[in-house]
Design a protein that fits this description.
Elements (H helix, E strand, L loop, with lengths): L2 H34 L2 H6 L18 H66 L2
Helix pairs in contact: 1-3
Length: 130
Amino acid sequence: MKPAELFFSYAVWHYSRGLQDFLNVWSNFLWFLYNFFSVSLLVRTLFSPWRRMDELGRSGFHLKAFLEKFVTNLIVRGIGICARFFVIVSGCLTILTGFILGFIFFVAWCLLPVVIVGLIVFGFRSIILP
């Protein structure tokens, strides 16, 4: 196989099947990050008690017991909000970083054959024309 045919067949693969596989891997990685951090579940349960640590009340009305239960539940929900909010922000930043890095790699993937040819031509040119 001649070098020109080899490069042409590589370029066809690189910009068709290779690019399609790259985009599939990138989308799978972003899907994994989204599901790993469970962003949608954490947003839906943002105001739920932390680890379902809910204080149960007694039968009848007792003001002291009611206030204890109310304050305890408020504290547990506050801890849940803080913990979930931290994980949501961390997850969103990680997903954003994955998206930006994927875009950089996408641009590099598209430019790589052109850069390689340019480097080869520049290398031969510097050998021939010192």
